[in-house]
Amino acid sequence: MTRAAVLCGTGSCLPGRRVGNDDLAALLDTSDEWIRSRTGIGARYWAEPGTATSDLAVGAGQRALKDAGGSAVDAVVVATATPDRVLPATAPLVAARLGLAGAAAYDVAAVCTGFVYALATAAGLIATGTADRVLVIGADTFSGILDPADRSTSVIFGDGAGAAVLRAGRPDEPGALGPFDLGSDGDGYDLITVRGGGSAQRLSERPPERGDGYFSMAGKEVFRHAVLRMSQSSARVLARAGWRTSDVRWLVGHQANRRILDRLADDLGIPRERGIGNIAEVGNTSAASIPLALDDAAAAGLLRPGDRVLLTAFGGGLTWGSAVLTWPRPATDREPVHPCPAPNTRPEGATDGHHV
Protein backbone atom coordinates (compact mmCIF):
# COMPACT_ATOMS: atom_id res chain seq x y z
CA MET A 1 0.00 0.00 0.00
CA THR A 2 1.19 3.54 -0.71
CA ARG A 3 2.90 5.13 2.27
CA ALA A 4 1.98 8.60 3.43
CA ALA A 5 3.36 11.03 6.01
CA VAL A 6 0.96 11.38 8.95
CA LEU A 7 1.14 14.20 11.49
CA CYS A 8 1.41 12.81 15.02
CA GLY A 9 2.84 15.59 17.17
CA THR A 10 3.50 19.34 17.33
CA GLY A 11 5.56 21.65 19.52
CA SER A 12 6.81 25.21 19.71
CA CYS A 13 9.30 27.47 21.43
CA LEU A 14 9.51 31.26 21.77
CA PRO A 15 12.41 33.19 23.26
CA GLY A 16 11.85 34.97 26.56
CA ARG A 17 12.04 38.61 25.47
CA ARG A 18 8.62 39.99 24.56
CA VAL A 19 8.82 43.22 22.55
CA GLY A 20 5.58 45.18 22.42
CA ASN A 21 4.74 47.91 19.95
CA ASP A 22 5.26 50.57 22.60
CA ASP A 23 8.80 49.27 23.11
CA LEU A 24 9.53 49.87 19.44
CA ALA A 25 7.78 53.23 19.45
CA ALA A 26 10.34 54.39 21.99
CA LEU A 27 13.11 53.62 19.50
CA LEU A 28 11.59 54.31 16.10
CA ASP A 29 9.33 56.87 14.47
CA THR A 30 6.24 54.71 14.90
CA SER A 31 3.34 53.97 17.22
CA ASP A 32 1.20 51.08 18.36
CA GLU A 33 -1.67 52.35 16.18
CA TRP A 34 0.58 52.63 13.10
CA ILE A 35 1.94 49.10 13.50
CA ARG A 36 -1.42 47.46 14.26
CA SER A 37 -3.24 49.20 11.42
CA ARG A 38 -0.67 48.13 8.82
CA THR A 39 0.34 44.68 10.06
CA GLY A 40 -2.07 43.45 12.74
CA ILE A 41 0.91 42.90 15.06
CA GLY A 42 0.85 43.90 18.71
CA ALA A 43 4.00 42.15 19.96
CA ARG A 44 6.78 39.82 18.96
CA TYR A 45 9.50 37.84 20.76
CA TRP A 46 13.21 38.48 20.19
CA ALA A 47 16.04 36.23 21.27
CA GLU A 48 18.23 37.34 24.15
CA PRO A 49 22.00 37.60 23.60
CA GLY A 50 23.45 34.10 23.75
CA THR A 51 20.43 32.45 22.10
CA ALA A 52 20.81 30.94 18.63
CA THR A 53 18.34 29.53 16.11
CA SER A 54 19.39 26.02 17.16
CA ASP A 55 18.33 26.73 20.76
CA LEU A 56 14.77 27.52 19.70
CA ALA A 57 14.72 24.58 17.29
CA VAL A 58 15.75 22.19 20.07
CA GLY A 59 13.04 23.56 22.37
CA ALA A 60 10.33 23.11 19.75
CA GLY A 61 11.67 19.69 18.75
CA GLN A 62 11.61 18.43 22.33
CA ARG A 63 7.98 19.44 22.75
CA ALA A 64 6.93 17.90 19.43
CA LEU A 65 8.66 14.61 20.22
CA LYS A 66 6.98 14.50 23.63
CA ASP A 67 3.61 15.25 22.05
CA ALA A 68 4.18 12.42 19.55
CA GLY A 69 4.83 9.98 22.36
CA GLY A 70 8.38 9.00 21.48
CA SER A 71 11.83 10.40 20.77
CA ALA A 72 13.08 8.13 17.98
CA VAL A 73 13.11 9.51 14.44
CA ASP A 74 15.04 8.63 11.30
CA ALA A 75 15.55 12.18 10.03
CA VAL A 76 15.54 15.79 11.23
CA VAL A 77 14.72 18.57 8.76
CA VAL A 78 15.21 22.18 9.84
CA ALA A 79 13.70 24.97 7.74
CA THR A 80 15.53 28.24 8.46
CA ALA A 81 16.78 31.41 6.81
CA THR A 82 18.89 32.26 9.86
CA PRO A 83 21.12 29.24 10.50
CA ASP A 84 23.62 29.31 13.34
CA ARG A 85 26.44 29.50 10.79
CA VAL A 86 26.84 29.88 7.03
CA LEU A 87 28.05 26.28 7.22
CA PRO A 88 27.56 23.59 8.31
CA ALA A 89 23.79 23.12 8.39
CA THR A 90 22.02 23.68 11.70
CA ALA A 91 20.03 20.41 11.59
CA PRO A 92 22.87 18.03 12.57
CA LEU A 93 23.57 20.11 15.68
CA VAL A 94 19.86 20.14 16.57
CA ALA A 95 19.67 16.37 16.07
CA ALA A 96 22.70 15.79 18.31
CA ARG A 97 21.32 18.00 21.08
CA LEU A 98 18.02 16.10 20.91
CA GLY A 99 19.86 12.80 21.34
CA LEU A 100 19.26 11.85 17.70
CA ALA A 101 22.86 11.59 16.53
CA GLY A 102 22.99 9.19 13.58
CA ALA A 103 19.69 10.34 12.10
CA ALA A 104 19.77 12.01 8.72
CA ALA A 105 19.75 15.79 9.25
CA TYR A 106 19.65 18.68 6.79
CA ASP A 107 18.44 22.26 6.38
CA VAL A 108 15.88 23.64 3.94
CA ALA A 109 16.31 27.27 2.84
CA ALA A 110 13.07 28.70 1.41
CA VAL A 111 12.64 31.59 3.87
CA CYS A 112 8.98 31.91 4.92
CA THR A 113 7.93 28.98 2.70
CA GLY A 114 10.55 26.81 4.37
CA PHE A 115 8.27 24.78 6.62
CA VAL A 116 5.97 23.73 3.76
CA TYR A 117 8.99 22.80 1.64
CA ALA A 118 10.42 20.86 4.59
CA LEU A 119 7.13 19.01 5.10
CA ALA A 120 7.18 18.02 1.43
CA THR A 121 10.74 16.68 1.60
CA ALA A 122 9.96 14.80 4.80
CA ALA A 123 6.84 13.32 3.20
CA GLY A 124 9.06 12.19 0.33
CA LEU A 125 11.44 10.43 2.71
CA ILE A 126 8.51 8.56 4.21
CA ALA A 127 6.82 7.78 0.88
CA THR A 128 10.02 6.19 -0.49
CA GLY A 129 10.64 4.14 2.64
CA THR A 130 13.83 6.04 3.48
CA ALA A 131 12.37 7.03 6.86
CA ASP A 132 9.50 5.92 9.09
CA ARG A 133 9.48 8.97 11.38
CA VAL A 134 10.72 12.49 10.66
CA LEU A 135 11.00 15.57 12.87
CA VAL A 136 10.36 18.76 10.89
CA ILE A 137 11.26 22.10 12.48
CA GLY A 138 10.80 25.66 11.28
CA ALA A 139 13.03 28.04 13.24
CA ASP A 140 14.24 31.59 12.71
CA THR A 141 15.85 34.45 14.63
CA PHE A 142 15.25 37.39 12.33
CA SER A 143 16.02 39.87 15.11
CA GLY A 144 19.69 39.26 14.39
CA ILE A 145 19.45 40.46 10.77
CA LEU A 146 17.01 43.37 11.12
CA ASP A 147 18.21 46.92 10.59
CA PRO A 148 17.29 48.58 13.90
CA ALA A 149 16.68 51.88 12.08
CA ASP A 150 14.25 50.39 9.53
CA ARG A 151 10.72 50.55 10.92
CA SER A 152 9.29 48.80 7.83
CA THR A 153 10.96 45.52 8.84
CA SER A 154 11.79 45.86 12.53
CA VAL A 155 8.12 46.04 13.52
CA ILE A 156 7.13 42.92 11.58
CA PHE A 157 9.49 40.10 12.45
CA GLY A 158 9.79 37.98 15.56
CA ASP A 159 11.86 34.96 16.55
CA GLY A 160 10.56 31.49 17.27
CA ALA A 161 10.40 27.83 16.35
CA GLY A 162 7.65 25.34 15.63
CA ALA A 163 7.91 21.62 14.97
CA ALA A 164 5.94 18.61 13.78
CA VAL A 165 6.57 14.88 13.92
CA LEU A 166 5.52 12.82 10.92
CA ARG A 167 5.16 9.04 10.89
CA ALA A 168 4.56 6.54 8.13
CA GLY A 169 0.90 5.73 7.60
CA ARG A 170 -1.86 5.38 5.02
CA PRO A 171 -2.94 8.18 2.69
CA ASP A 172 -6.58 7.72 3.74
CA GLU A 173 -6.09 8.09 7.50
CA PRO A 174 -6.56 11.30 9.50
CA GLY A 175 -3.40 13.37 9.69
CA ALA A 176 -2.07 12.26 6.31
CA LEU A 177 -0.33 15.13 4.51
CA GLY A 178 -0.82 15.88 0.86
CA PRO A 179 -1.12 16.61 -1.85
CA PHE A 180 1.43 19.44 -2.03
CA ASP A 181 1.92 22.34 -4.39
CA LEU A 182 5.35 24.04 -4.56
CA GLY A 183 6.69 26.79 -6.79
CA SER A 184 9.25 29.54 -7.27
CA ASP A 185 10.03 32.62 -9.36
CA GLY A 186 13.66 33.74 -9.32
CA ASP A 187 12.77 36.94 -11.14
CA GLY A 188 11.76 38.19 -7.70
CA TYR A 189 15.10 37.19 -6.15
CA ASP A 190 15.85 40.70 -4.83
CA LEU A 191 12.42 41.43 -3.33
CA ILE A 192 13.17 39.62 -0.05
CA THR A 193 16.87 39.35 0.69
CA VAL A 194 20.03 39.79 2.72
CA ARG A 195 22.61 40.92 0.19
CA GLY A 196 25.73 40.22 2.22
CA GLY A 197 27.37 37.07 3.50
CA GLY A 198 27.11 34.86 0.42
CA SER A 199 29.48 34.17 -2.44
CA ALA A 200 28.00 36.91 -4.64
CA GLN A 201 29.09 39.53 -2.14
CA ARG A 202 32.26 37.85 -0.91
CA LEU A 203 33.64 37.25 -4.39
CA SER A 204 32.66 40.61 -5.81
CA GLU A 205 35.09 43.51 -6.16
CA ARG A 206 32.65 45.83 -4.44
CA PRO A 207 33.44 46.55 -0.79
CA PRO A 208 30.61 45.64 1.57
CA GLU A 209 28.18 48.42 2.43
CA ARG A 210 26.49 49.05 5.79
CA GLY A 211 23.17 47.56 4.77
CA ASP A 212 24.54 44.38 3.18
CA GLY A 213 24.15 42.34 6.35
CA TYR A 214 20.59 43.44 7.03
CA PHE A 215 17.31 41.99 5.81
CA SER A 216 15.46 44.06 3.23
CA MET A 217 12.05 43.69 1.62
CA ALA A 218 10.13 45.54 -1.11
CA GLY A 219 6.89 45.74 0.84
CA LYS A 220 4.32 46.68 -1.80
CA GLU A 221 5.60 44.16 -4.36
CA VAL A 222 5.84 41.44 -1.73
CA PHE A 223 2.25 42.10 -0.62
CA ARG A 224 0.99 41.71 -4.18
CA HIS A 225 2.99 38.56 -4.88
CA ALA A 226 2.13 36.99 -1.52
CA VAL A 227 -1.62 37.24 -2.01
CA LEU A 228 -1.47 36.13 -5.66
CA ARG A 229 0.94 33.21 -5.20
CA MET A 230 -0.71 31.79 -2.08
CA SER A 231 -4.16 32.11 -3.64
CA GLN A 232 -3.08 30.32 -6.82
CA SER A 233 -1.14 27.64 -4.95
CA SER A 234 -4.04 27.02 -2.57
CA ALA A 235 -6.46 26.65 -5.47
CA ARG A 236 -4.17 24.13 -7.15
CA VAL A 237 -3.68 22.00 -4.05
CA LEU A 238 -7.41 22.01 -3.28
CA ALA A 239 -8.13 20.84 -6.83
CA ARG A 240 -5.58 18.02 -6.48
CA ALA A 241 -7.15 16.98 -3.17
CA GLY A 242 -10.66 17.14 -4.64
CA TRP A 243 -11.71 19.66 -1.99
CA ARG A 244 -13.90 22.72 -2.44
CA THR A 245 -13.11 25.88 -0.53
CA SER A 246 -16.29 25.26 1.47
CA ASP A 247 -14.71 21.99 2.67
CA VAL A 248 -11.86 23.86 4.36
CA ARG A 249 -12.52 24.25 8.08
CA TRP A 250 -9.27 26.08 8.84
CA LEU A 251 -6.93 28.15 6.68
CA VAL A 252 -3.42 28.37 8.13
CA GLY A 253 -1.49 30.90 6.05
CA HIS A 254 2.03 32.11 6.66
CA GLN A 255 1.72 34.79 9.33
CA ALA A 256 3.21 37.62 7.27
CA ASN A 257 0.71 40.42 7.73
CA ARG A 258 -2.91 40.55 8.91
CA ARG A 259 -4.01 42.36 5.76
CA ILE A 260 -2.37 39.70 3.57
CA LEU A 261 -4.15 36.94 5.48
CA ASP A 262 -7.51 38.70 5.16
CA ARG A 263 -7.04 39.28 1.43
CA LEU A 264 -6.01 35.66 0.96
CA ALA A 265 -9.14 34.39 2.70
CA ASP A 266 -11.32 36.76 0.65
CA ASP A 267 -9.73 35.68 -2.64
CA LEU A 268 -10.24 32.00 -1.79
CA GLY A 269 -13.81 32.54 -0.61
CA ILE A 270 -13.02 31.26 2.89
CA PRO A 271 -14.56 33.26 5.76
CA ARG A 272 -11.90 35.26 7.59
CA GLU A 273 -12.94 33.76 10.90
CA ARG A 274 -11.79 30.38 9.63
CA GLY A 275 -8.23 31.65 9.42
CA ILE A 276 -5.95 30.40 12.20
CA GLY A 277 -3.37 32.93 13.24
CA ASN A 278 -1.28 34.26 16.09
CA ILE A 279 0.45 37.13 14.29
CA ALA A 280 -0.94 39.65 16.78
CA GLU A 281 1.14 38.13 19.58
CA VAL A 282 4.24 36.71 17.82
CA GLY A 283 4.62 38.68 14.59
CA ASN A 284 6.07 37.19 11.42
CA THR A 285 8.32 34.32 12.51
CA SER A 286 9.26 33.27 8.95
CA ALA A 287 9.68 29.47 8.66
CA ALA A 288 8.31 29.03 12.18
CA SER A 289 4.99 30.77 11.56
CA ILE A 290 2.84 27.89 10.30
CA PRO A 291 3.95 25.29 12.88
CA LEU A 292 3.69 27.89 15.65
CA ALA A 293 0.13 28.71 14.58
CA LEU A 294 -0.78 25.02 14.37
CA ASP A 295 0.62 24.24 17.80
CA ASP A 296 -1.12 27.26 19.28
CA ALA A 297 -4.45 26.19 17.78
CA ALA A 298 -3.96 22.57 18.87
CA ALA A 299 -3.18 23.56 22.44
CA ALA A 300 -6.21 25.87 22.52
CA GLY A 301 -8.51 23.05 21.38
CA LEU A 302 -9.42 24.89 18.19
CA LEU A 303 -8.51 21.99 15.90
CA ARG A 304 -10.94 19.08 16.09
CA PRO A 305 -10.70 15.56 14.67
CA GLY A 306 -11.83 15.54 11.05
CA ASP A 307 -11.26 19.27 10.47
CA ARG A 308 -9.93 19.86 6.97
CA VAL A 309 -6.90 22.15 7.12
CA LEU A 310 -5.22 24.12 4.33
CA LEU A 311 -1.61 25.26 4.82
CA THR A 312 -0.12 27.88 2.50
CA ALA A 313 3.01 30.03 2.56
CA PHE A 314 4.99 32.56 0.55
CA GLY A 315 8.58 33.66 1.00
CA GLY A 316 11.84 34.87 -0.47
CA GLY A 317 13.21 33.36 -3.61
CA LEU A 318 10.46 33.94 -4.53
CA THR A 319 8.95 30.70 -3.24
CA TRP A 320 5.50 29.47 -2.33
CA GLY A 321 3.81 26.24 -1.32
CA SER A 322 0.61 24.68 -0.01
CA ALA A 323 -0.53 21.41 1.52
CA VAL A 324 -3.68 19.90 3.02
CA LEU A 325 -4.45 17.49 5.82
CA THR A 326 -7.37 16.32 7.94
CA TRP A 327 -6.72 17.00 11.61
CA PRO A 328 -6.11 13.63 13.27
CA ARG A 329 -7.02 13.86 16.95
CA PRO A 330 -8.70 15.68 19.82
CA ALA A 331 -6.87 18.27 21.87
CA THR A 332 -4.47 16.90 24.48
CA ASP A 333 -3.59 18.33 27.86
CA ARG A 334 -0.58 20.35 26.77
CA GLU A 335 1.02 23.68 27.45
CA PRO A 336 -0.05 26.40 25.02
CA VAL A 337 2.44 28.43 23.04
CA HIS A 338 4.41 30.65 25.39
CA PRO A 339 8.06 31.55 25.94
CA CYS A 340 9.99 28.43 26.83
CA PRO A 341 13.52 28.28 28.18
CA ALA A 342 15.85 27.40 25.34
CA PRO A 343 18.16 24.63 26.53
CA ASN A 344 21.73 25.84 26.73
CA THR A 345 23.33 22.47 26.00
CA ARG A 346 25.33 22.89 22.82
CA PRO A 347 28.12 20.32 22.43
CA GLU A 348 31.51 21.66 23.51
CA GLY A 349 33.02 23.84 20.81
CA ALA A 350 29.72 24.32 18.97
CA THR A 351 29.00 27.83 20.21
CA ASP A 352 29.17 30.42 17.45
CA GLY A 353 31.17 33.46 18.54
CA HIS A 354 28.40 35.74 17.26
CA HIS A 355 26.11 34.48 19.99
CA VAL A 356 28.56 34.60 22.91
TrEMBL record:
<feature type="domain" description="Beta-ketoacyl-[acyl-carrier-protein] synthase III C-terminal">
    <location>
        <begin position="238"/>
        <end position="327"/>
    </location>
</feature>
<keyword id="KW-0012">Acyltransferase</keyword>
<feature type="domain" description="Beta-ketoacyl-[acyl-carrier-protein] synthase III N-terminal">
    <location>
        <begin position="106"/>
        <end position="186"/>
    </location>
</feature>
<dbReference type="Pfam" id="PF08541">
    <property type="entry name" value="ACP_syn_III_C"/>
</dbReference>
<keyword id="KW-0444">Lipid biosynthesis</keyword>
<feature type="active site">
    <location>
        <position position="112"/>
    </location>
</feature>
<comment type="subunit">
    <text>Homodimer.</text>
</comment>
<dbReference type="InterPro" id="IPR013747">
    <property type="entry name" value="ACP_syn_III_C"/>
</dbReference>
<feature type="region of interest" description="Disordered">
    <location>
        <begin position="332"/>
        <end position="356"/>
    </location>
</feature>
<dbReference type="InterPro" id="IPR013751">
    <property type="entry name" value="ACP_syn_III_N"/>
</dbReference>
<comment type="similarity">
    <text>Belongs to the thiolase-like superfamily. FabH family.</text>
</comment>
<dbReference type="InterPro" id="IPR004655">
    <property type="entry name" value="FabH"/>
</dbReference>
<keyword id="KW-0275">Fatty acid biosynthesis</keyword>
<keyword id="KW-0808">Transferase</keyword>
<keyword id="KW-0511">Multifunctional enzyme</keyword>
<keyword id="KW-0443">Lipid metabolism</keyword>
<keyword id="KW-0276">Fatty acid metabolism</keyword>
<dbReference type="Pfam" id="PF08545">
    <property type="entry name" value="ACP_syn_III"/>
</dbReference>
<keyword id="KW-0963">Cytoplasm</keyword>
<dbReference type="GO" id="GO:0033818">
    <property type="term" value="F:beta-ketoacyl-acyl-carrier-protein synthase III activity"/>
</dbReference>
<protein>
    <recommendedName>
        <fullName>Beta-ketoacyl-[acyl-carrier-protein] synthase III</fullName>
        <ecNumber>2.3.1.180</ecNumber>
    </recommendedName>
</protein>
<feature type="region of interest" description="ACP-binding">
    <location>
        <begin position="255"/>
        <end position="259"/>
    </location>
</feature>
<feature type="active site">
    <location>
        <position position="254"/>
    </location>
</feature>
<comment type="pathway">
    <text>Lipid metabolism; fatty acid biosynthesis.</text>
</comment>
<comment type="function">
    <text>Catalyzes the condensation reaction of fatty acid synthesis by the addition to an acyl acceptor of two carbons from malonyl-ACP. Catalyzes the first condensation reaction which initiates fatty acid synthesis and may therefore play a role in governing the total rate of fatty acid production. Possesses both acetoacetyl-ACP synthase and acetyl transacylase activities. Its substrate specificity determines the biosynthesis of branched-chain and/or straight-chain of fatty acids.</text>
</comment>
<feature type="active site">
    <location>
        <position position="284"/>
    </location>
</feature>
<dbReference type="InterPro" id="IPR016039">
    <property type="entry name" value="Thiolase-like"/>
</dbReference>
